[in-house]
Amino acid sequence: MEESHYHSIFAIETTHWWYRVRRKIAIDILKRLIKKNDGSVVKILDVGCGAGGLLKELQQFGVVYGIDIANQVVEFCKNRGIPNVGIGSITDIPHPDNSFDFVFALDVVEHIQDDESALHELYRVLRLGGYAIISVPAFQSLWGVTDELSHHVRRYNRHQIVEKLKKAGFKIERVTYFNTLLFLPIAFIRLIVRIFGIKMKSENVSLGFVNELLYYTFNIESKLLPIMNFPFGISILAVVQKI
Known about the structure:
Rossmann fold
């Protein structure tokens, strides 16, 4: 990821419509899954934790750890009062086997050439019966500026990510597309940008009325996701278990 993109995320993560709703979706999933825990102290790992927005909210549920490949991340997280954050890659997680009850990898796997090794590492550090919550961007045809700035290698369809998760050993609890209500406008904008060769420095919308409109539109899905799967979307969400 471009260094400037990390600073941008740190600056907008608490207010940006995408990060706010993605955190809400992740926390809602954890709340439902944590009821299945045996009551022992919960250990959670956020892989590719970025500026620490999700980590901050995860602290209420147990002992939380984070890793990221960027040196800036440790400083960002310290500024937010988040300990237990260090340098590490999803393909070489610096924790022993069977260490965590829950592992989050939100928009991380798509950065990795050897994504199958990355998924095997997530499986390795999970305890038996533990869950991984994973999100990736959907549909290669939606490739855009954010993919370039974030140094993505690929986007996925549902079949592709399901097959890779199964190959890593996971039991599939659930895989669904999400960010569906905004699919058409986002797809349209990216198509126009591609056709006309429009140069954009960023796709982030984080201020004012538009940001709030996007938040409330996307937030509708956080209420629908517990009861339904979506047939298409900008991203894919997977909940998988180590058995």
